[in-house]
Amino acid sequence: MTIEIAIRHRFAAFEVVIDFAAPGGVTALFGRSGAGKTTVVNAVAGLFRPAHGRIVVGGETLMDTEARLFVPTHRRRVGYVFQDARLFPHLTVRQNLVFGRWFRGGGARTADFDRIVDLLGIEMLLERRPGTLSGGERQRVAIGRALLSEPRLLLMDEPLAALDEARKAEILPYIERLRDTFDMPILYVSHAVEEVARLATTIVALNDGRVARQGSAGQVLADPDAFPMLGRQEAGSILTATVARHDTGDGLTELAFSGGRLTTPLIDAAPGTHLRVRIRARDIILALKPPEATSALNILPAVVQRLGRTEGPIVDIAIRCGEEDLLARITRRSLERLALRPGTPCYAILKSIAVARRDVGIFETRHD
Amino acid sequence: MTNWLSPAEWDALSLSLTVAFWATLLSLPPGIAVALALARGRFFGRQVLNGLVHLPLILPPVVTGYVLLILFGRRGPVGSLLEDWFGIVLAFRWTGAVLAAAVMAFPLMVRAIRLAIEAVDPKLEQAASTLGANRLWTFTFVTLPLILPGIIAGAILAFAKAMGEFGATITFVSNIPGETQTLPSAIYAFLQVPGGDASAARLALVSVTVAIVALAVSEVVASRVARKIAGR
Question: Do A7 and A209 contact (CB within 8 A), yes or no?
Fold first, then answer.
């Protein structure tokens, strides 16, 4: 199910000209605040009416200014999870959840209700009122409410932005499960690279109302030239791996991926589980020869792919390790000293403890 | 137990309650509609509507009663139509007292409901629309429950105002015992005749009691509803 979005609208201060198509899965709309992210999702939901544009979801046209077509919000069947949950305060959690069912001809079946309630872990909250819920609980109920309205597309506008780190960590796994169990495209707005790295299958980076870059999450995150837009400090790529074995004695987990083995702090996942691991560019050290007697547990053979733009003393370098694209950040001086060029074989060195728990996401293989 | 009020006094009390009840009930739907239009509407003439609604609040009640007499009297442009088409006569009837009370209470009701509507977060209504609710359903299931305390407050305020309405009522429908003599008119009438002081005092006491009971009921109901919609 693809999403095609092309909108053009002039605001007082700036103009939004956005045009992209995304396959299914999670499409992350990424960018700084004011980049036009919320404008896009609101246009898809029909809450905002762009001056020009066309929006097609799964073959169905929701809006086309040339054909003078504008489907009103309540007939678009888009689930929307807002940053501020927006649960109805006068209804119980259960009534909030089934709200959409009243208007969609019977809506979700009981089996779906039970499944979604179970998936989001909210069965204990059903008879409570939104005022008594924590921020994280509220957001889970909001996700369930959107899902139970049987949408063809789920919009999530910074659903974690209002939550603290602990709550974010609580909800991220639920969104991952959502992505992996439902065959429903998700348009996910975020300005946090961490979330995007864990969730996105496709990334559309927005900057000043334009699409600055788009592509698969692996590609965009490992692109050394994309990072000035995504945020300099947070640069890092994602690696997909499988849990190979745990060493509970040392508190370590060994992951297998196309480029070899990666040792990380203990991960709470059964062997065989597919994971996405985010590796920050600044945590990778490059060497021409494998170092001996080092404390770093991961020494991975790699090949330099591309040199990024230099900025000040640093340069980001795209390297390939097996079939995974990684990003390494080194100084210009090191670049010259090692004489790295595209095609140079090298070793990527990574401390195990550089991989934090929040950098690891579960990524179940889909059966479609 | 009925002998502490004379039959004439009972008539005035029951008539006042009836008039206030109908005035409140009949002005609720237009009151909500006008409050919605004023709170949310962006149409030409909104300020004119606002002014019109508030007019009875600032005009001398006698003037309002006079205008009603001109418009709704048996030979008035609206009054004659009502009589010809529906056989409804308002002038000098208790139905006219209902109209006068409703017109006088209307601005108070609209203000209370309008404030409640303005306090409703439109984002909740947006959320309802993304869940498939059209505007009518959104109003019924989201907006209306959330403004219920305001509606109750507005209704009680209107009821109390209708119970006490005097100037417009006596001008429009006069002071006919058993037909248009409400509590305030009766108190006024008793004060005009020798020996009526005791009756006036009793009716004044009744008025105070009714007002206090209405206020207490509205407080209890409104706080209960408010707690419910606060989501706790």
Answer: no
